[in-house]
Structures are given as C-alpha cells and as structure tokens.
DNA sequence: AGGTGCTGCTTACCT
DNA sequence: ACAGGTAAGCAGCACCTG
C-alpha cells in the first residue's frame, strides 16, 4: 500500500533487537497514521589505514562482546578533502555512542595502539539521522510505501514502511490545534492545580472542583485527581495534532506531572499511549508528547521573536497585548487566592483562566505558520525548531546541507575546547563618533545583509581559509594575515550564497502577488526563515560551542565590514557629503549643499559606491529624516555612540540607545524623554519641553503618578548568591527571598526606590510590597526625570537649574 | 562623620 | 548555548577634611 501524509512527529524506539523509526502524520483527509521503518544507526571512523583499522575495530568489539552489524568503507568529504571513512552500522538506538566510546581506545592521540584518528556523527539521534538521510523536512508531505500493520498506537492505521520520499505539496492537512493553561494555588510550598482551561476551534472548557453558578463551558469535577483524569480524557478525545502552551515546558507540564504522580494519574497524552516524558535540553527540559507537536510559545518568542518586540517582559499578557492587541483579564494573585479560598468571584477566575488559553491559541494561530515554515527550511521537526536559538537553527541548516553534499559533520567541541575557544576574541564592527548636536536632513544608508554578503562574496568558509593557492591568488582579508580561496567554493560560503539567492527569488515572486493574499504571506514567512538562518551564520562562526566554529572566519567578516564602511565614509566625504555617524554597516549622511536636493545627492552617491563594490555587496537607502539629535557622553568628553533620535517627515520618531528604549529606566522617565524629544525634533520647542518636565515633577510630588510608571525592571543574570556588588535589583531580590518568595536566575526583578535611610540599593523594594506612599520622589526627580530630560535638553544649552526653575535669573 | 572622586561590577542596548 | 562595541548607574573603597 501507498500513503501520503503530512509529517508531525518522529522518534526512535527499540523493539527487541531492532531499531525502529516511527513517523506520526496526518493524511489529507485527516486520518492519523503511523509509519514504522527499520533503521540501522551508524557513525563514521577516520583512520590512517582504513583496512587495518577495520580489523582492529572488529577484534576490539569481539573481545568486548559488543555487537555491530557491519563496517563499510565509504568516501566522504572532510574539510574540503575526499577521504576514506569506515561506516560502522550498529543495532540499537544508543549503540553509536557506546561503540564509539569503545573505539576511542584505538585512537593514537589518546595513547591508544590503533590507527584510528577520529570518530564522527555518533551523537546524531536516530530519528534525525533518518530524516536527514531520507531528505525529509521537518514539516512536509511524505509518500510511504509498505505493508499494513496492527499496532497499539493511537492511529487510524499503521504501516510497515519500505520506501519513503518527500513530496512537494503546498496545502496543510486539517490540523487540530488545542491550547491549555492551568491555575495553581500554593499550599505549604506545594502547588495544587485548581483550574485547567482548554481552547480550540469551536471548543472551550474550564475544569475545576468548586461549585458555583458557572457558565456552561465550566465542568465541575470532584477533586484535583479527577481534574487530571479529565484532562487526559479530553486530550485523547479531542485528539489535537498540535498542543500549545505558554511556558508549558517550565511551568504547566512540570506541575501537571508532579501532581499526576502524587495522585497516581497516568499522563497518557501521547499517541503512543505511553506516559508523557521530558526530553533533556540545554537549559530546561521540554515536555514531549509523542505523535503530537507540543509547542511552548514562550521558547519561540524568547529565542527568535524577542529582539523585535517592544515589551520589557515576555509574559503572555504583554506579548499578546503587543502581537494581538488583546490582553489577559486583570486579576492579581491575591485576588485569585481569595476567589479560591473564600469562593468569592469564582466565575471571574474561570473567565480569567479561559482567557489565557484563548490568547495562547490566538498567538499560536499567528506564529505557527512561521514555526512550520522554519521547520521546512531548516529540516527539523516543529517540536525541536520551536525551541531552538538562532545558532542552533543555523547549525541544523548546515547539517542538512552537509548530508546532502556528502560532507562529514564536524564534531561538537568538548567542554575544554569551548573554554579554550572562549579565551580568543577579535575586533568587531567600526563605530564612528557622531558629530555632536542637532542635524537637519539626514539620509541613513546601510549595507544590505552585510555579513552574509561578505561571506558569499569572499568565499568565507573554514576550508577555504588560507588555502594552498596562497595569499596573492586569493581574497585577502584587509588588515589581517588571512586569505580565502578564489578557485574552490567553500561549504558554508556556498550555503550562504544559496540562501541569499533563494531569498532574492522569493522577494521577486512576492512583488508579483497581491499584498494581502495567502501566497504573499507564505512567501513572506519563507523569505524570513531564510533571512534568519543567513544572519545567524556569522554569529555561529564565532560561537565557541558551534560545530562549524571558525574564529578566523568571523574575524574576517568583521575586518571586511570595517574596511567597507570606512571606505564608504571616505568616499562620501570625498564627494563633499558630511558623515554624521556610522555603525558597523550603516552610515548617516547630511547634505551640506543648501541649494541641492538631498535625495538626488544620495542617489548619485549610491550609484557611485555600488558601481565600485565587489560581488553582491550593496549599499542602500534605509530612510531619510528631517532632523536628528546626537548627545554628549556623560562619563567622558565627546559625543555618545549608539545613542540618538531621528524624526521623519511624518513626525515618526526613531530612538536608539537612549533611556526611552531601556527597560532599566522607569516608564515615567522614558515617556517624558520621548515627549521632550518630540518637542525638540518636531519644532525645537524648548520652553514647552521645560514646562512639560516641570509639570511632570509636580505631578510626581503630588503622588499623582501610579506605581507602575515608577517601576524599574532589571534582570538577575546569575544566581543571587554570586553577586560581588549589591545593586538595587539584587537588593530587591534579596528582600523577596527573605520574604519567602521564589527568586531564580534569569528572572526580571521589578522594583522601585522608597524613601528612608541608606543607599539606593538599601531603599530598593520589590513593587509588590509597597504602595505609592513609600516612594522617594527625590530619587525619581534627581535620578530619573532630570537626567533623562537633560540628556536631550543640554544639547539646547538647558542647564539643571534652568530646567528646574531654581535659577534666580 | 561626612564629602569627593575613582574604579569596577553590572545591565542593557546597537548593529 | 550568538558576536563585539558601547554607555552609564551605582557600590565600594580610598582618601581628604574638619
């Protein structure tokens, strides 16, 4: 029989002495299908003398009574050279690692006797190996040929697969999406689940175990045990393909698992009818539900989206506020406790709980296309993709390419290697000190994808570095002793080149489609995936934990980058243009000719520069602005880099680096600085700005400013006990700890400065423990409002005394 | 005891 | 568990002054 299905999930199991790959999928009609494939895990061995090594390995495994299937000899590319490898086929899932450990004894470099040099690819998990070798992407359609099979798995039918291939198909099958969320109540340090909500298309439910006159979507059960049982029942009945949570990996599922084990409830949520498991990852474990895709949106938002978000906090409330324009129902923890303990307003609590699931569902609806597209681009399962960082996405993309091109994948560095790598640093981008003060008519030019373009243009790749062609016949890296081959294309560089080309094609196709059409949207998510991967590769070169680590490559990218931005500045000045500022790949120019039009001068300059630039390097116009301000440094003489504000012809502000965009400044000071910038940049209304500051101070002194606008956010970047210096956020966190609250590494401390005795730190209090009455207005005037305002106003010669109206004149 | 000025720890930003 | 370049606040300390 032959079946076509959309791949959802895959894993590997041991059945007797066999290794089986399980593919879980969905047919176009919506049937659940499982395909099982026999699989032989394998890894590669590089040896001085492959024939001799083969014998030695066989003898060694014989004496250690380790079973393998066979050893083949095979040619593979290692760092640009074709070499002969031994391909060792194993029997069971973990055998590649185990057998590799045995063979390690034959490595000469470890003092062994044999001719083995190194082993490769022994850590790639079997299901990933299978997908890589069969050229199957993370979320794509496959066609499987095989025999029908009886299984105990939760599927409409199963198939013992013989053949598999990926098929190109645009449409998705009917996928069922379900989101969930829990509310907990802490008692003697133990979390109890008091409520659980679920949200799907035409489905909403809240489970709880206290009675009231509830909405019809609330189901009252007897107790927590029954709540958990009901949860399992609903999952199996509704049978979602994608289960979505917000923080499910680190909160909901750990709590659910803990309570389920306490109450002896079996958490059989998976389609393999086994209990839910956590798979270990770097920082936190992930809750894996076999056969379904558990997407924890927090991971994706935190790893991929957060740099592009405005919000200070990555809470469900803040993120959905920004992305959906919808917020949680307002209810603080105290209210929640009271609702539960005193049965007060329990209805509101059910609505609150349900709303969380609704928001999670809607966020999933918005973000899932990007996750699935990314999964297709990178070629890993959506479960894995949704939890990856930029570096990991780049690495798995390269891994897939390497397998395609029969190249050996470099080994993950050992811990000592990582430590050693971290000791090397190199020079990065060039930053020009800005011309001080206000400027009119600024054009911002920047290099399109500077580092990816450099990698592609100059063939920057680990194997092309300092090639045998010699310096003179190659691309020489300015200001360094490195060069890159002009003859043979490198692996990483050609991959980046392909990414850029594919993206350009997609952008062309996008131009031919309607802006609001589905096709346009699909093309857009696809080009964004390619952009993310391409941009991550430079960082990956310099990342000590990366398989394709190459410090010289990263260093060369930066060196070329510095060369071209400096050249651009020089050329601009030669053409009589004023360069106000430059940072890494951008250049701010001002038109010094009052009689000439800026846009024409810019066009002329861009044409001039682009005709000289090599390869695919291109300088483009990012935008024009009618006015901009650059601010003096606080701590040293001169003008500050990376801190400025621009205003365009529609009076839109672009603010970078200033207090306005920093979360460790209170909202009041940030909003005030934005207002001052608007007054100044729009029409230089200095007096109005001063008046505004004075009014704000007055409001503050009258306690008319809410506490939330005085809150400062700062992250604990390490364990609380390891701080050498107790700053305000650390002091506030210490107080939280003493008051019995949970304090953890990575958490965002929300605090405000109160009046009283001692240093600022001593007066920093967690906001949850204080009211507006406790606030030290003087601190907020002197350390927040005045500095934020003066930063801008000092450019217009406003002094502190003038600002506060304390001057006698 | 209280002020002053420097250094280093720390965070968050820019590209 | 992504890089280097940069600004800036506050603690902590040495030192000075009276």
Automatic annotation (TrEMBL):
Enzyme Commission code: 2.7.7.7
UniProt xrefs under Gene3D superfamilies: DNA polymerase family B, C-terminal domain (1.10.132.60), DNA Polymerase, chain B, domain 1 (3.30.342.10), Helix hairpin bin (1.10.287.690), Palm domain of DNA polymerase (3.90.1600.10), Ribonuclease H-like superfamily/Ribonuclease H (3.30.420.10)
Gene Ontology annotations of biological process type: DNA-templated DNA replication
Domain DNA-directed DNA polymerase family B multifunctional: residue ranges: 397-795
Catalytic activity: DNA(n) + a 2'-deoxyribonucleoside 5'-triphosphate = DNA(n+1) + diphosphate
SUPFAM superfamilies, A to Z: DNA/RNA polymerases, Ribonuclease H-like
Keywords (A to Z) from UniProt: DNA replication, DNA-binding, DNA-directed DNA polymerase, Nucleotidyltransferase, Transferase
Main enzyme class: transferase
Descriptive protein name: DNA polymerase
The species this protein was found in: Aerophobetes bacterium
